[in-house]
TrEMBL record, chains A, B:
Keywords: DNA-binding, Transcription, Transcription regulation. Residues 1-133 form the HTH marR-type domain. The lineage of its organism: Bacteria, Bacillati, Bacillota, Bacilli, Bacillales. This is HTH-type transcriptional regulator YybA. It comes from Saccharibacillus endophyticus. Pfam families: MarR.
Length: 150, 150
DNA sequence: CTCCTTTTGTTGCAAACGCAATAAAATTAT
DNA sequence: ATAATTTTATTGCGTTTGCAACAAAAGGAG
């Protein structure tokens, strides 16, 4: 009886832990890298979209991003046609940090799939994307007060 | 360019979030279920072994398990032949809760792999186990102050 | 246009998190 | 046998986390 979610959980905690330790000396505190990466890859993205991509609580994202701004890695900009949404952009400092984050990320991904064939790697990614798609609606549902029956 | 670790991270956060919300009304606070499950499945296990399985900081595990004991879900017992290790056992209350946790866990795993063939499911588990094995040594290393080169 | 709902974002508060430092028992080395 | 190292567990401290509750703008329904 293998348990997919437990493997996923352990792997996720491993890499989160490693990343946080490695980025700390560069001025990024816990989990900030997660948000910075998304903002750098999607300039102008709004917070709620990051929440959807990353799967974290609104309030957590709000404060993490606030801190990123305070620390000079990103900037919030009022969209001209919309006074509610705040578009997020990396600063120069943020972009520099991103280059480093990318190197670490590439290294970690390569380390993760070491020993897998190119085909297995593709398969793994495809299956994980499927799992993620399966999970998303349940997450939305439960986060919004819905219940799962089992 | 698909990123395996980001998928893994999002999936893990989804299920952690769902689990925490679902278990809260039953008296389990954040992430306690993770430790309770391991103790129920491995009666007599010590804390450090759980840390190794789950991939979390010692101090986090220590306090989570302490709380589990305080809440009457588990018991710590001094091993007769060893005064350092503390063997962990579920109480009756803990075992009852475990039955429920198992149902939720089974449901979540089934939901996760919905639409995958039995073969794909096996493949996914196998590949995840491989990734986990790849990651473990790096986690140990970095947690103990070592550095990765990239 | 006005009312209702949804979307986006923030804040209060209590709890969990994890690095660092500590302690003590167990194991290994000399 | 004794010293050095490793293993196991805890605690101090500041930070992050997330549920709840809230606010305000945007979007839809009548």
């Amino acid at each position: 009886m293998g348990n997919i979610l437990r493997e996923v959980g352990a792997i996720a905690r491993c890499f989160e832990s490693i990343s946080n330790i490695e980025f700390k000396p560069y001025g990024l505190s816990k989990n900030q890298y997660i948000y910075l990466v998304r903002i750098c890859e999607n300039p102008g993205i709004i917070q709620e979209e990051i929440v959807y991509m990353v799967k974290v609580d609104r309030s957590t994202a709000s404060r993490a991003i606030e801190k990123l701004e305070r620390d000079g890695f990103i900037q919030k900009e009022q969209e001209s046609d919309n006074r509610k949404n705040k578009a997020l952009y990396p600063t120069e400092k943020g972009k520099e940090m991103y280059a480093f984050l990318r190197k670490e990320d590439d290294y970690s991904n390569a380390a993760a799939v070491k020993g897998l064939s190119a085909e297995e790697e593709e398969t793994l990614l495809r299956l994980l994307q499927k799992v993620r798609a399966n999970v998303e609606p349940d997450w939305e549902k439960v986060k919004n007060g819905g219940t799962r029956e089992y």
